[in-house]
């Protein structure tokens, strides 16, 4: 294009000279003939002396011989005019062809690279997820794997952007630059060398800046990964956070971890702005140097004007495309930084590879197990020895029970048998073969596992059971469910076995989950059965049936049982007593009792608990949700308010950008400076056109001294323009980038805070998950930068540029200006179509990404269950299917976007062709006196149009930002039904804790057709300790949720101290309640911080923490840890055993000193001795407090002041233990279920 443009300019110059000479012969004038001769009114002068007077009517002077006067007639002039139009038409048509070339190849580049990026991103996502699933458990212990949602959304999106059309456009820019350099050297190597003299400086500077950008981006990614892991942890335990009033604490923790993200982002924008500023300064400086030296060559070496123009335009094009490549390079550098962690995971070779195909596969596994002098400590706690020379032999078909205090290493043995870890020293053998020599996948297929905290997945009940055996038929699934005593409650569900149970089985009770987990293990028909407190969450009737099924299942299988309730293991062939990581005693129940050793002491401590019973807490048929389960996340609309939601969405859409801009205007002084900088940058393009046109006009002059003088002036102007543009470019990128980072941080905090203030109805809808929320928190807020950050700078720059070239068009030649401006609406129309294409593409991609992220996060957060089932490939295929949904939809949109973007990029050539052709006609007709006006208008407008084309290239970012802003403000505007963020509601100086349920009816919002309470009525007096008992699904845990005001009742009233519970300040009411759940959730703090979490309204002192730990019987254990109370408990308390976590959770509740104490199986995970001590502590803590106890072990509730028996949503019996036994009613039947 530059060659055509240069030759066209030469045509204008030649024709201008010939035309002036022709008209001068008619009218008389003063013209410069060459360096020495001047023609004045038909008289030729040399250095002021008259040489000859010309009398011809028509004449011309031959440039090769100033004294040779030739006759020119009208025919000659007509021939010159025809030559002029022929050449203009030729070069104009060539520019049109050049535009078509741009259109075709830009379409190919963008569409093909976009398709390739989609393909590669699809493969990377699959490889990353597969690699993460295949990592050993040690990796999950040591790495911060909770930021998986961040990697699956933000990081992989950055990678996709980096390898997509940005690569194609970068290659396109650099290939254009390379061709420009080649043509420049062909037409004038001397001038080209001078023109590119600044390029090495620019290249070195850009390389250094790119390196800094990459370093800062790595820091930014790592920092956000940490804050993202906090968000995932908190949202996974939302009910625990709310119950203990930890919302502000978690928002502050999240905010503090976002601060490094913001600082790194601002630094990145600083380096980007610096790079742009350097580039623009040296670009205009090279223009100045090029023209100055080019004119020198024309004067001294008879250099062709067209060659100067071609070299200059090639330098211009090279610089322009390098500038356009800058944001693309930044996107690529950001993608490179994001790819580091992703590819580290993909390329990591785990020590224990679950995908390994090596290792022995036995024809038959007999089931002999041997531990030989095994030493082991967890990788995350190398100083804490778990197994210390553990040796044990289990013969084929034996049922062996592992018993001992909490933390002695029982569950560790279960994990090592599944080869989650390898011993530090010693060997584990299966059928006399080292476990490390067996194929790990085959080994896990031979083992069935039921854990203490069973994990289910967000699929149907049938699919969950089938995870145990993918080839199981529906009949086999039902038989397994019958054996697990789960068939009856499943059959009562509206969808039966096709009921979707939510993320981690959120819609089931603990007992129901455990029975399905048992069915999952039984359908596997394993050779080895590992039961880790497999019946701990069952009521007595269910336990008796399930235990009988497990006893049958154990026949002919090697079975290892971990149990705290020694009554469940008395029939074991061998009982192994473990203490401090070594075997203390081995024998049968009778033999160990006769030895009167450690086992005897454990049994004796449980003798007073022989009258045990177990009940479940919740039934999905009644719609009750377990208290502290990991819940799936809701959308932002109430199903019962669809019409209002639609109207609200329209209003939010209209106001989203307005509200976003108001956030930008908060930084008004920075914003004004940024706007001023954008104005300078925008106006610099038209100014460049004016200066360029003046330079071209000066070359018409034959007086070399005048040309040189003007050249120096214009060169200085270019340098000044370079300084102004460089400074303005730096300021606009840095300022708007910094504003964007600050707004992004603010929005992340606002969104996170908005999540934490939502009621539980928000979290009960199964359409979303924790992974989806984290994905939105990451992607939506990041994408807002497209509408509030550096893209504002580009938009403002484009606006000022448009105003500038409109002024050029109207001031210099309005007719020509209108013709060139006619192409701008076409460009804007192309931009509109592109945004429409992108809008649909982004929405479908967002939906698919959230679905896949939900599945991936669920699988990774339950990796132990996935690994033990050996279902990595099952979840991998499900994830792949989720991605394919989006993958297929993107192909057509990639082609459409390539076509539209290619058209927008070709506009420059089309507008050049039309503008110069029409300008030549106006020039010939005399409507334009000087051809430099043509180039001022055309060059200024077309150069500005290229900026609009660049803005179009980033219109996707703006569209993403606009859509993300709508989503964010929709969330921020959602009004939860139960929220007290403005501190409204009643508070009292004295609070007694009297509780009354008065004809309360309730059903969960997601299951309105399943009523939990049917006008239930009961009272708890001040200081009373009452127990709630009943069969599965009666609604015991629902009372706790209603008292915590996670929900409000549908009908009836709940009174606390004779005041409607809805009138209290929610936060104040919750601060008076202490809660201990059946499945305690700890946070990735230290032990001390976890205990102090019980009271977030003040600074809990170390003595208070220690006192609470002593009451919970956990102080001695903590004191013996290397780091003591500063020991970090890991993700969800993973570094502690179940009993240790439970005791820390009890200490957390006690440190609060609550008026009302809610105990939901508070001692279920404790061994007998720990339970006895903790129960004594709880009994003491219950004195003077109102207590509601839900327990499976009747020994813990027999001394209650009152026991309420709940059945079918109503209280059917109430009284003391002895009075209820005397009635021989429902309680009596429950009491005798175990006997």
UniProtKB/TrEMBL annotation:
Locations listed in the record: Membrane
Domain ABC transmembrane type-1: start-end pairs: 91-332, 672-960
Bilayer topology term: Multi-pass membrane protein
Main location (coarse class): membrane
Transmembrane segments: 90-117, 167-187, 193-210, 270-293, 305-323, 669-692, 712-740, 792-812, 818-839, 898-919
CDD domains referenced in this protein's UniProt entry, alphabetically: ABC_6TM_Pgp_ABCB1_D1_like, ABC_6TM_Pgp_ABCB1_D2_like, ABC_MTABC3_MDL1_MDL2
GO biological process terms held by the UniProt record: oligopeptide export from mitochondrion; renal tubular secretion; response to insecticide
Enzyme nomenclature, EC number: 7.6.2.2
Gene Ontology MF terms: ABC-type oligopeptide transporter activity; ABC-type xenobiotic transporter activity; ATP binding; ATP hydrolysis activity
Domain ABC transporter: residue ranges: 369-605, 995-1233
PROSITE patterns on file: ABC_TM1F (PS50929), ABC_TRANSPORTER_1 (PS00211), ABC_TRANSPORTER_2 (PS50893)
Name of the top EC class for this enzyme: translocase
Domain of life per record: Eukaryota
GO CC term (a single one): mitochondrial inner membrane
Catalysed reactions, semicolon-separated: ATP + H2O + xenobioticSide 1 = ADP + phosphate + xenobioticSide 2
UniProt keywords, alphabetically: ATP-binding, Glycoprotein, Membrane, Nucleotide-binding, Repeat, Translocase, Transmembrane, Transmembrane helix, Transport
Similarity comment: family membership: Belongs to the ABC transporter superfamily. ABCB family. Multidrug resistance exporter (TC 3.A.1.201) subfamily.
Protein's recorded name: ABC-type xenobiotic transporter
Record organism: Dinothrombium tinctorium
Lineage of producing organism: Eukaryota, Metazoa, Ecdysozoa, Arthropoda, Chelicerata
């Amino acid at each position: 294009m530059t060659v055509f443009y240069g030759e066209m300019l030469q045509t204008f110059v030649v024709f201008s000279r010939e035309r002036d000479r022709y008209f001068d012969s008619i009218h008389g004038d003063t013209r410069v003939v060459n360096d020495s001769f001047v023609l004045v009114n038909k008289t030729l002068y040399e250095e002021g002396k008259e040489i000859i007077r010309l009398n011809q009517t028509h004449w011309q002077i031959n440039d090769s011989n100033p004294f040779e006067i030739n006759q020119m007639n009208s025919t000659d002039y007509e021939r010159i005019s025809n030559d002029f139009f022929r050449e203009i038409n030729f070069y104009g048509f060539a520019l049109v062809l050049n535009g078509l070339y741009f259109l075709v190849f830009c379409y190919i580049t963008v569409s093909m690279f976009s398709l390739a990026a989609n393909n590669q991103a699809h493969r990377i996502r699959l490889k990353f997820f597969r690699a993460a699933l295949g990592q050993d458990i040690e990796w999950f212990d040591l790495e911060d794997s909770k930021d998986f949602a961040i990697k699956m959304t933000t990081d992989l999106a950055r990678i996709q952007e980096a390898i997509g059309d940005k690569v194609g456009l970068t290659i396109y820019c650099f290939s254009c630059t390379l061709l420009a350099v080649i043509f420049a050297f062909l037409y004038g190597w001397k001038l080209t060398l001078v023109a590119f003299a600044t390029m090495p400086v620019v290249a070195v500077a850009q390389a250094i800046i790119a390196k800094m950008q990459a370093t800062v981006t790595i820091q930014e990614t790592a920092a956000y990964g940490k804050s993202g892991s906090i968000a995932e942890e908190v949202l996974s335990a939302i009910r625990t956070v709310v119950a203990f009033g930890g919302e502000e604490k978690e928002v502050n923790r999240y905010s503090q971890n976002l601060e490094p993200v913001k600082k790194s982002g601002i630094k990145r924008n600083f380096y980007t702005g610096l790079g742009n500023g350097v580039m623009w300064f040296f670009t205009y400086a090279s223009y100045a140097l090029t023209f100055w030296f080019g004119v020198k060559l024309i004067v001294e070496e008879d250099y062709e004007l067209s060659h100067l123009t071609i070299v200059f335009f090639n330098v211009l094009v090279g610089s322009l495309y390098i500038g356009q490549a800058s944001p693309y390079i930044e996107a690529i550098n950001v993608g490179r930084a994001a790819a580091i962690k992703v590819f580290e995971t993909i390329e990591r070779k785990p020590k224990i590879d679950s995908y390994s195909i090596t290792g022995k596969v036995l024809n038959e596994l007999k089931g002999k197990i041997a531990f030989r002098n095994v030493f082991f400590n967890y990788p995350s706690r190398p100083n804490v020895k778990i197994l210390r020379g553990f040796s044990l032999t289990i013969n084929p078909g034996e049922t062996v029970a592992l018993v001992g205090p909490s933390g002695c290493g029982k569950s560790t043995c279960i994990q090592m048998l599944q080869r989650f870890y390898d011993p530090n020293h010693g060997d584990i053998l299966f059928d006399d073969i080292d476990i490390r020599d067996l194929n790990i996948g085959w080994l896990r297929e031979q083992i069935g596992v039921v854990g203490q905290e069973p994990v289910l997945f967000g699929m149907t009940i049938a699919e969950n059971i089938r995870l145990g055996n993918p080839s199981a038929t529906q009949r086999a699934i039902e038989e397994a469910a019958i054996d697990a005593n789960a068939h009856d409650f499943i059959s009562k569900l509206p969808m039966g076995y096709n009921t979707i149970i939510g993320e981690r089985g959120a819609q089931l009770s603990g007992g129901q989950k455990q029975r399905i987990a048992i069915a999952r293990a039984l359908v596997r028909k394993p050779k080895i059965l590992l039961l880790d407190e497999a019946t701990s969450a069952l009521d007595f009737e269910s336990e008796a049936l399930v235990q009988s099924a497990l006893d049958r299942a154990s026949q002919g299988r090697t079975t290892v049982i971990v149990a705290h309730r020694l009554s469940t293991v008395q029939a074991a062939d061998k009982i192994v007593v473990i203490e401090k990581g070594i075997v203390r005693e081995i024998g049968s129940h009778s033999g160990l009792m006769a030895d009167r050793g450690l086992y005897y002491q454990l049994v004796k401590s449980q003798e007073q608990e022989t009258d045990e019973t177990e009940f479940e807490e919740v039934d999905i048929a009644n719609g009750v949700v377990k208290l502290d389960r990991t819940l799936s996340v809701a959308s932002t609309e109430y199903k019962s308010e669809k019409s209002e939601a639609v109207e609200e969405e329209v209003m939010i859409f209209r106001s989203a950008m307005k509200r976003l801009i108001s956030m930008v205007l908060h930084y008004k002084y920075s914003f004004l400076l940024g706007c001023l900088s954008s104005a300078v940058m925008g106006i610099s393009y038209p100014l460049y056109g004016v200066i360029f046109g003046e330079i071209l006009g000066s070359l018409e002059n034959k007086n070399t001294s005048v040309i040189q003088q003007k050249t120096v002036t214009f060169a200085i102007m270019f340098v000044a323009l370079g300084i102004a543009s460089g400074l303005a470019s730096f300021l606009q990128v840095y300022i708007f980038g910094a504003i964007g980072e600050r707004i992004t941080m603010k929005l992340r905090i606002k969104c996170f805070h908005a999540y934490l203030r939502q009621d539980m109805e928000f979290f009960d809808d199964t359409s979303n998950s924790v992974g989806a929320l984290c994905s939105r928190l990451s992607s939506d807020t990041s994408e807002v930068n497209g509408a509030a950050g550096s893209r504002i700078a580009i938009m403002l720059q484009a606006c000022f540029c448009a105003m500038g070239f409109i002024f050029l068009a109207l001031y210099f030649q309005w007719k020509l200006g209108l013709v060139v401006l006619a192409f701008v609406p076409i460009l804007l129309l192309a931009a509109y179509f592109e945004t429409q294409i992108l809008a649909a593409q982004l929405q479908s991609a967002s939906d698919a990404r959230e679905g896949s992220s939900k599945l991936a996060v669920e699988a990774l957060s339950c990796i132990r269950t996935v690994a033990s089932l050996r279902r990595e490939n099952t979840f991998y295929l499900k994830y792949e299917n989720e991605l394919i949904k989006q993958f297929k939809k993107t192909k057509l949109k990639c082609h459409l976007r390539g076509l539209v973007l290619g058209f927008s990029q070709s506009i420059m050539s089309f507008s050049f062709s039309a503008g110069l052709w029409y300008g030549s006609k106006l020039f010939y007709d005399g409507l334009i006196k000087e051809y430099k006006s043509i180039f001022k208008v055309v060059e200024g407008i077309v150069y500005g149009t290229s900026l609009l084309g660049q803005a179009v290239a980033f219109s996707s970012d703006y569209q993403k930002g606009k859509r993300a802003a709508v989503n964010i403000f929709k969330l921020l505007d959602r009004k939860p039904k139960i929220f007290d963020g403005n501190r409204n509601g009643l508070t009292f100086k004295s609070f007694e804790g009297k509780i009354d349920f008065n004809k309360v009816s309730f059903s969960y919002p997601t299951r309105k057709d399943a009523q939990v309470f049917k006008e239930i009525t009961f009272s708890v007096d001040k200081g009373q300790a009452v127990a709630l008992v009943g069969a599965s699904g009666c609604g015991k845990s629902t009372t706790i949720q209603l008292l915590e005001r996670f929900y409000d009742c549908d009908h009836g009233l709940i009174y606390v101290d004779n005041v409607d519970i809805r009138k209290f300040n929610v936060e104040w009411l919750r601060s008076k309640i202490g809660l201990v759940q059946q499945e305690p959730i700890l946070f990735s703090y230290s032990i001390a911080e976890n205990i102090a979490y019980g009271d977030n309204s003040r600074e809990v002192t170390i003595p208070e923490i220690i006192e609470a730990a002593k009451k919970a019987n956990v102080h001695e254990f903590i004191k013996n840890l290397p780091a003591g109370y500063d020991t970090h408990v890991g993700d969800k308390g993973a570094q502690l055993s179940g009993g240790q976590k439970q005791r820390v959770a009890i200490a957390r509740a006690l440190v609060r000193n609550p008026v009302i104490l809610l105990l939901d199986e508070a001692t279920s995970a404790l061994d007998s001795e720990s339970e006895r001590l903790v129960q004594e502590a709880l009994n003491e803590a219950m004195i003077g407090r109102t207590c509601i106890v839900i327990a499976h072990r009747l020994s813990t509730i027999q001394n209650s002041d009152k026991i309420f028996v709940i059945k079918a949503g109503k209280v059917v019996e109430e009284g003391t233990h002895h009075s209820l036994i005397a009635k021989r009613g429902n309680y009596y039947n429950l009491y005798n279920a175990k006997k």
